[in-house]
Amino acid sequence: QVQLMESGGGLVQAGESLRLSCAASETIFTMGWYRQAPGKQRELVARITTIGSTNYADSVKGRFTISRDNAKNTVYLQMNSLKPEDTAVYYCNAAGPLSGTYWGQGTQVTVSS
Fold this sequence. Notes:
By secondary structure, this protein is an all-beta fold. Helices cover about 0% and strands about 55% of the residues. Strands 2, 4, 5, 6, 9, 10 and 11 form a seven-stranded mixed sheet that branches. The chain has a four-stranded antiparallel sheet with strand order 1-3-8-7, with no helix packed on it. A hairpin with a 4-residue loop joins strand 5 and strand 6.
């Protein structure tokens, strides 16, 4: 059973930055972040593979950067120029073809206008 430990999140004003971190208990091919706002479906924010391939939601391109430290099995999400519409619970996700899919407990990000 893969364990995911999230950190970061909090309350910031529009235009400010936050960084989320997620450490996995073992190496997983793809790690990333999803978010879910009240009344909305969970959506992909960004993800990265062990070889550095990335995907971003259109809404965060140019503002968010995902990175990964494979030696630490840790993924980071640097969020800049935050907007009120970025407010959501952010969930770490880890998935691999053999390991299955795992979710973190979620961390709240709130951006005030």
